[in-house]
Amino acid sequence: MSTVGDFVKGVVSDVLQDMLKKATGTGKRTRRRKRALTATERLSRIERLIKPAKKQTSRKKTTRARSKTHQRGP
Questions:
Q1: Rounded distance, CA 12 to CA 23, Å?
Q2: What is the per-residue DSSP string for 43-69?
Q3: What is the pLDDT of residue 24?
Q4: Residue 46 Cα distances to 13, 38, 41, 57, angstroms
Q5: Is the dihedral of CA 57, 60, 64, 67 positive or negative?
Q6: Residue 3 burial (C-beta neighbours within 10 Å; 0-12, 13-18, 19+)
């Protein structure tokens, strides 16, 4: 009977140790270096800042603008 109890104790202690090991976070993560922007990427960022985004038009307006065959859908 005591062997079953010992077995259970061993399993519980192993599980607890495993959980503690994972909780402490001893694993190291590599840092990623920031890559420098290319000329085209830099230009596109500047353009995005200068030119404002298009305003979203209403769904009703876009469906009216479509032809009747496209309005019906598939």
A1: 16
A2: HHHHHHHHSPPPPPPPHHHHHHHS-HH
A3: 59
A4: 59, 13, 9, 25
A5: positive
A6: exposed
Tens digits of residue pLDDT in 16-59: 788 777 655 556 778 888 889 899 999 999 998 998 888 877 88
Residue at 34: amino acid letter: K
Closest of 58, 59, 62, 37 to residue 48, by C-alpha? 37
Query: For residues 34 and 41, is the Cβ–Cβ distance under 8 A?
Result: no
Q: Is 25 left (phi over 0), alpha (psi -120 to 50) or beta?
A: left
Q: d(Cα 26, Cα 11) in Å, to the nearest integer?
A: 23
pLDDT exceeds cutoff 80 at 1: no
Instruction: Please say whether the beta carbons of 71 and 63 come within 8 A.
Output: yes
Looking from the CA of 40 toward its CB, the CA atoms found within 13 Å total: 0
